[in-house]
Amino acid sequence: MEKIDCLFINTPKMASYYKPLGDFILDTYLPLGLLALADLLAKEGFSSKIVHLGVEWVLDHNFSILDYLKNKKVKVIAIPLHWHHQSYDAIELAREIKKAYPKTYIVLGGYTASYFAEEILERFSFIDGIIRGDGEEPILSLVKAVTKRRALSRVPNLTWRRGGKILINELSYVASQKDLDRLSFTNFKLLKNYQTYIRYVGFLPFFAKNFSKEANFLFFSYRSPTLPLFIGRGCLANCTYCGGGREAQEYINGRREPIFRSQEKVLESIREAKEYGYETVLMDFYPSPQSDDYYIKLFQMMREEGIDMECLFGCFSLPSKEFAEEFRKTFPGRRSAIWLSPESGVEMVRKKIGGFFYTNGQIMEALEDLNRLHITTELYFTFGFPFEREEDVLETKRFAFYLKKRFRCIWAIRAYPLEMEPGSLWQRNPERFGVVSNRKSFVNYYEANSQKNLEVLNSLGYYIPSFFKEGASDFASFERKMQRLKCRHFCLIHPNARRSGPPWLGRVMCRGMSLYQKLKRKKT
């Protein structure tokens, strides 16, 4: 019998539905720190492995985690509950395992679990503990305590039960740069079937169940194995809608300011990713407008070392001219791109959101530089903000498509309705922002994500009574109107996932894909 001290089991949201796709799996990529946790345990002499239930489904639709565990003796099972979409699947996975293996210690971790730790333990008695915030030292301490039968009271950041009482250990561990630099975020050999994850699952926004893994890669990915690169933690912005903003970080993780891994350690991860077959890195950590200096140095070091990779860069503020020039020198290919997130085309809305404010004129100045340098650019917009109205969304559309017409570097415009994220300012205090919310507790997220045939865009978690001219007096009517707004003005469907076209083309393709799904179901 194989002995495993700690088995990490990652479950995405396994049952989702969207009209043109049919059934699909949501949130397929691993939380960025999970490989580091498993690697830390292995380096400290504990056996650890990761199983990704989405990957296992892709390879074998009949895969059973209970069958997998039959010939194994596992001391601790750690289940990430990071994204709120995982809420139902993670809890039911824990329930299933505890029923079959009652002596196995089951611990949750991740952002959503951290925020709702006490409520989760109160409601679900089969979960033994939850690690809040940063998990490196806590998971190591927990595995030591369980395997060597030591007191759990010394495990930092742990919320746990003893008898009928829930105990809350101090949130005493907050990772420093020195801590992060000791970790490896690219030991993929600890992940079961990691080759399938890297090639077909690891950076898809979803996996459509009615398509093969090859078809998913061809139609729904950027057609390049892409690594979300771990660079740091934290943020200085305090966006109204974001669960990862400055106040939420301090409340959930105890983190008061952003930290970066050293450029040398990031380069080490890039080298290792390349050896595993990755062709592209996603850099999506931009906690302040002062982040340019860090990345400019990183880009220069990559060129000095001759590292040839593509890059997708998520820029939450506007890049400086120097940043754009250094990016172009380092990643000259057209498959590399900078993602800008103006969020709204209306300056007043953008200012009230609470992030890094800049004017529409400044956006155009930045796009002039990107266009001059021939840097592929994507624009990301969102709607459903507090203080926003339907006419603001229409103004966003006009501004977005004006930019796309003016600047040839813009390959895609993407726009999504907001969801209510745990820990965000408006989730914690919806009345302050004129929002009516049905996402006030963990069980609200759990129940919302338990609905297997729920349209992914029809579970926003809030409504704004004054948003539409005709009004929306309940969640269902608001969500239907938001769906129509998106489909009519911002349909994203395009034969090339790197691009977007006019909304009418997307709607035509949507109808065609829906018809294909119906015909396929009839044949089966």
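(the above was protein one; protein two follows)
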Amino acid sequence: MKKQFNILFYLTFLILYLEILTKVFITKSFSGLLLTFVFSIPIILILYLITNIFKRKGNIVLTYIISVIFILYYCFQFFFHRLFSNIFSFNTIGLASNALDFTNIIFDVVLKNIWVVLLYLIPLVLLIIFQKHINFTRTSLKKIIICFVLTIVIWIASLLCLLINKNDTYSAYNLYYNINSETKTVETFGMFTYTRLDIKRVLFGFEEKLTVEEEPVLPSPPEEEEPEEVITYNEMEIDFDTLIASETNGTIKSMLEYFKNSEATNKNEYNGMFEGKNLIFILAEGYNMIAAREDLTPTLYKLTHEGFVFNNFYSPVFLSTTGGEFQATTGLIPTQSILSDWKKNKPTIKYALGNAFSKIGYSANSYHNWTYTYYSRQKTMETLGFTSYMGCGNGMEDLINCSWLPSDVDMINATLPLYEENTPFVTYYVTVSGHAPYAYNSTGNSIALKNIDYVKDLPYSNNVKAYLATQIELDRALEALINSLEEQGILEDTVIALVGDHYPYTLTIDEINEISDYERDEIIEVNRSNFILWNSEMDTVEIDKVGSQIDVLPTLLNLFGIEYDSRLIVGKDILSDAPGLAIFSNRSWVSDYGTYKNGKFTLKEGKTLENISDYVSDMNNLVANRFTLSANIIKYNMYEYLLK
């Protein structure tokens, strides 16, 4: 009989091979490889014990089942990350099912990455080929006992490894016990250990802890000398001392301490600039600055070069459109657990876009030209403060053609008469015409097909041309909106704000770079975009400070002179003196001084820092705390608690 090797060797290969593919295709970093290996050993030994339960044939079947389950799960995580730039969490099964409804998009992404699927299938292929050379016979009781004891010993040893550098912000210790970061955890421990922690946290609950009790004092660019004047701040009278003294919940108490010790942003020269004006806010599906072209999208081009022009603005991807929506309308960071709590518990978000304007007498309306229950918007629009919400299924279908893909132009033309006379108003649009897949066919993208003549002769790949064709529809919608407002005589009294929900993530980075005016990377710069903030009567103002989606709401609140406490929103008014910062789902960040990604900080040209390591440490603490604050503000309904 030919010599056979133990099933343990195959199981070791299976797990470690899948973990290495995870580092290659998802985290794109081999940091944490040693810990991934150490924490994988106990699960490998447990799988070995499981595949020794039955006789030979039963163990063979069990090995195939285990292999298929693991390969499918790891492969699913790859595609989830490819679509949403994040790791799937069981916290958000409902959200993911919404986002994955578009089977044609999934098919397109799978087809583009079929070679990756083949790589994931290699362990299964090898199992089939070498099955006869693997010993599936049940091992002796003695060996099973040794294996069980060894599993426990290695498990204890792996936990002891967590004590190394435990005080670092993203140390293995903190990621294991204190911080819920999907990407960082996978990067440090591997996919399986992350999944085990994720399931445990979903079933038994988890509370992130603040890394420090107050915000670090960060360097700000030198200011020109100006005449002394009284500086006022966006803050309210909140008796934190009394609240802290009476609070028994440790998490809430630490948050109160943090808010108390935080510095509010200043009421700058732009405070109240748009006071009393109407606001039309557009969350534009798939919009990115690469779509603003003078030849194809002249209205978008005009609006991105007039009004407030934010030269360093980012729209980070946080689980598709719902993440972009949450960022822009609440000023908070939307992790998967936060989005899940938001939709399930319907917390009071008193500073959210609709609530803030309703409080000062505005009529608050919202419209979406797709299914009104998508991403549970029939619930979340209420938490955002929109008393009137219409989508396909609760009225929009009577005004426009709601079959896939609906037109943004049709939505604007049909809904503007519903609110234009009820001033002052804040109106929130969630568009859909720019949705993927980017292809010329009626079932995949009828909008791209509709506008094909405008792009067919451009020197780009078909996917890129189809994307630009969808953004032409958004451009036409903006043109129709501005013309209608002007005809009604309210254009000068109306502010138009627009951000993209996320970059067009079904395009590859090479396709995006076809029409980008500079070379982008897949982590940071792929998210660079525009924040359109425009009024027909204002002069153009250029802002170089870094900003992102979470800064949109506080910027608007300051401009419209709405009273709020800036310490309670993790985003900051971009026009204030607060240091600029953009935060991404994998906890990378961009500041006015440089970029931090893959554990490395790169100083911007022309910038200097006295102590880079201290600066990076402070920034990592700040970023971690903003994630934690966002989660616990929603979990504990802190706005209701503080602003009764």
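Reviewer note on protein two: The chain has two domains: 5-204, 240-642.
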